[in-house]
Amino acid sequence: MIRDITFGQFFPAKSPIHALDPRTKLVLVVAYIVMVFIGNNFFCLGLAAAFLILVTALSRVPVKMILRSIRPIWFVIAFTAILNIFYIQGEVLLFEWGFIHIYDRGVFTALFMAVRIILVVMGSSLLTYTTSPTDLTDGLERLLSPLKIFKLPVHEFALMMTIALRFIPTLIEETDKIMSAQKARGADLESGGLLKRVKALVPILIPLFVSSFRRAFDLATAMECRCYHGGEGRTRMKKLQMHAGDYWAFGVTILVFGGIIAASILLPKVY
User: Fold this and answer.
1) Cα–Cα distance between 226 and 229 in angstroms, integer?
2) Pairing of strands 100-103, 93-97
3) Is residue 229 domain-resident?
4) Has residue 256 been placed in a domain?
5) Residue numbers of the domain that contains 69
6) Of 106, 173, 224, 236, which cross-links 88 as Cys (Cβ 3.0–4.6 Å)?
7) Measured between alpha carbons, how far is 200 from 188 in angstroms, rounded to an integer?
8) DSSP collapsed to 3 states, 184-207
9) pLDDT, tens digit (0-9, with 9 covering 90-100), for 83-97
10) Whole-number pLDDT of residue 231
């Protein structure tokens, strides 16, 4: 089950989305998240979903891999939906039992919020699936370069974020190995109450922390041995350059963004 988590992985392929400039993809992901949260009705979410389907088809990333990125947040989606169902009141009462009252508005809002979270997670996952860690670091550093005026360590921040994102699949694989080793020794990690299951995680977390610190120390040593230094004076093998595909991507995104804003103003709200 741990191996099913694919967030943070890079899926190499030759596609128009992979060929986009990493700065373009970072800006478009932020714009996509904003447009999903601006939309206040199902038509807006339908436009965002159609845009996501188009990008997914162009990226040539397997749909199963994208759907697997939702698995870690099923609890968050269910919890958010339950809160909206039981706490939002409406005009039509659908169900009543004791102190429990479920209204039509609560059900629609719960469904709307669940779809919104799923679209945001799937859209964000496409960024890591179609962008290598090196390109992601360069793109993030270029976008944050205006902050150098305020003497902020932009390169170090971008490198830290990218390394943390890149190590997610590695830590997931390490966790799966530790859990398999503990089960082989007779450890019961799945049965019992909540307190017992939390205590059973201690033999997993301690080796995981030790392994994480060891990997971080090895990475730091390797970078020092190669005389790595970021920021000023650092050369790059591949220079970031905008192409026609990037401008087409911006144009399509602006059209979708405008359609969602218009639909949010003209059509009735869900909540």
Assistant:
1) 9
2) antiparallel
3) no
4) yes
5) 2-166+241-266
6) 106
7) 7
8) HCCCCCCCCCHHHHHHHCHHHHHH
9) 888 877 777 777 677
10) 63
What are residue 189's phi and psi, to 5 degrees?
Answer: -105, -5
Residues 6+ apart with CB under 8 A from 80: 110, 113, 114, 117
Q: Is 225 part of a structural domain of the chain? A: no
Residue 111 CB contacts under 8 Å (≥ 6 apart), including other chains: 81
pTM of the model: 0.78
Low-confidence ranges of the chain (pLDDT < 50): none
Give the chain's domain count: 1
Tokens 């373009």 — which residue? 24
Please check whether residue 134 lies inside any domain of the structure: yes
Burial 10-33 (b: 16+ CB within 10 A, else e): bbeeebebbebbbbbbbbbbeebe
Q: What is the 3-state secondary structure (H, E, C) of the chain?
A: CHHHCCCCCCCCCCCCCCCCCHHHHHHHHHHHHHHHHHCCCHHHHHHHHHHHHHHHHHHCCCHHHHHHCCHHHHHHHHHHHHHHHHHCCCCCEEEEECCEEEEHHHHHHHHHHHHHHHHHHHHHHHHHHHCCHHHHHHHHHHHCHHHHHHCCCHHHHHHHHHHHHHHHHHHHHHHHHHHHHHHHCCCCCCCCCHHHHHHHCHHHHHHHHHHHHHHHHHHHHHHHHCCCCCCCCCCCCCCCCCCHHHHHHHHHHHHHHHHHHHHHHHCCCCC
Alpha carbons 14 and 16: distance in angstroms, whole number: 7
